[in-house]
Amino acid sequence: MDPQDWIGNWRLDTTRTELAFHSPTFWGFAHVKGIFTDVEGSAEAVADGNVTGRLSISAASVNTGIGRRDKHLRSADFFDVERFPLIEVSVESAEVTGTSWVTLSILVTVKGQEQEYDLPVHVRDAAGGEVQLQTTTTLNRQAFGVDGNLLGMMGDAVTIEAAAVFVKQS
């Protein structure tokens, strides 16, 4: 896709987007794996090359496949979804860094705590005016106040894997 084809407004295709995470637990002997099932988003690319966008993730949509654990992750010990229902990702800008690669400058907000990151993202053309963005990064959950940690069993690092499909709007 020619970068000029990126200019315009884009909508996240929630049916083909996956936001997954995994984190070591039991002192590194096992990993908690899960997904967020409720994600919305949009983006805009303008002629000067600037890109902005947002993802809104329902913290209550965390799903590890174990109901009791998911309930605990929704509690004040972790995401505190009653007080902080959304995890927000704001794209401030983008820089083309190679063939099919961009670096997004993003602001992540979890439980009212903000952290800035430069996120390398692989960009692929999809059929019919669509684009897929794929990235993997590691965040420190303590930086966001996500600090539930029974007996020190959980590490602070959480690996996030995202594959997002955006559809260009007419």
TrEMBL record:
Entry-linked Pfam families: YceI
Q: Which domain of life is it from?
A: Bacteria
Q: Where is the Lipid/polyisoprenoid-binding YceI-like domain?
A: 9-167
- Transmembrane residues, as ranges? none
Tell me which PANTHER family the record gives: PROTEIN YCEI
So what family is this one in? Belongs to the UPF0312 family.
Q: What is this protein called?
A: Lipid/polyisoprenoid-binding YceI-like domain-containing protein
Source species: Mycobacterium adipatum
Taxon lineage? Bacteria, Bacillati, Actinomycetota, Actinomycetes, Mycobacteriales
